[in-house]
Amino acid sequence: MLTGKFISFEGPDGAGKTTALNSIVADLTPQLNDNLVVTREPGGNRISEAIRDIILDRKNTEMDDRTEALLYAAARRQHIVETIMPALKSGKMVLCDRYVDSSVAYQGAGREIGVDEVYQMNLFATAGLLPDLTIYFDVPSEIGLRRIMTHRTDEINRLDVEQLSFHKRVRASYLKIAEQNPQRIQVIDATQSKAKVVSDVEKIIYQANKGLFNKSGE
């Protein structure tokens, strides 16, 4: 039985999701302590991080699109089994930087190999496990790419260097996923200041997880 809370953070490249997540973690850690688990995809454990290195390596330009999607799903499965599920069974809050929606948006729509096909692949990999809450950081593709080139010049990966049309397909897919899943996904305007974005996200998290915070002594 899962007694914890699973929250994923999603957004197109340059949305500032990871930067905001770091600030949110700093604010939540004193309240949740060991009841907070912070992880990422692809990654989160030794095997999944090794797969991440292969996927994002800019030298792997010959990687087939379906191979890429399968590698993401494989990393996700190992992540669930080794990291996410044990934490949820222990009653912890899991904050995950990217999850299934990323694969649907990036590989399904961005790579144009099929949204439904990628979703079904990940349905098998996850055995149907979805977050209790997803925070989607929305930003126009042009702004996101400009942020990447300005602030992440030493960390640009294989997906970052795709054409603008690719990133526009990704964003459009994310917005459609959010529209189809209003009970799970909360949309944040990521063009706002970092402080406003962090404040908006924390309000959503507190409101959706009062019991967990109360249990932790807030």
TrEMBL record:
<dbReference type="GO" id="GO:0006227">
    <property type="term" value="P:dUDP biosynthetic process"/>
</dbReference>
<dbReference type="GO" id="GO:0005829">
    <property type="term" value="C:cytosol"/>
</dbReference>
<feature type="binding site">
    <location>
        <begin position="11"/>
        <end position="18"/>
    </location>
    <ligand>
        <name>ATP</name>
    </ligand>
</feature>
<dbReference type="InterPro" id="IPR027417">
    <property type="entry name" value="P-loop_NTPase"/>
</dbReference>
<protein>
    <recommendedName>
        <fullName>Thymidylate kinase</fullName>
        <ecNumber>2.7.4.9</ecNumber>
    </recommendedName>
</protein>
<dbReference type="InterPro" id="IPR039430">
    <property type="entry name" value="Thymidylate_kin-like_dom"/>
</dbReference>
<keyword id="KW-0418">Kinase</keyword>
<keyword id="KW-0808">Transferase</keyword>
<feature type="domain" description="Thymidylate kinase-like">
    <location>
        <begin position="9"/>
        <end position="200"/>
    </location>
</feature>
<dbReference type="InterPro" id="IPR018094">
    <property type="entry name" value="Thymidylate_kinase"/>
</dbReference>
<comment type="similarity">
    <text>Belongs to the thymidylate kinase family.</text>
</comment>
<comment type="function">
    <text>Phosphorylation of dTMP to form dTDP in both de novo and salvage pathways of dTTP synthesis.</text>
</comment>
<dbReference type="InterPro" id="IPR018095">
    <property type="entry name" value="Thymidylate_kin_CS"/>
</dbReference>
<keyword id="KW-0067">ATP-binding</keyword>
<dbReference type="GO" id="GO:0005524">
    <property type="term" value="F:ATP binding"/>
</dbReference>
<dbReference type="Pfam" id="PF02223">
    <property type="entry name" value="Thymidylate_kin"/>
</dbReference>
<dbReference type="GO" id="GO:0006233">
    <property type="term" value="P:dTDP biosynthetic process"/>
</dbReference>
<keyword id="KW-0547">Nucleotide-binding</keyword>
<keyword id="KW-0545">Nucleotide biosynthesis</keyword>
<dbReference type="GO" id="GO:0004798">
    <property type="term" value="F:dTMP kinase activity"/>
</dbReference>
<dbReference type="GO" id="GO:0006235">
    <property type="term" value="P:dTTP biosynthetic process"/>
</dbReference>
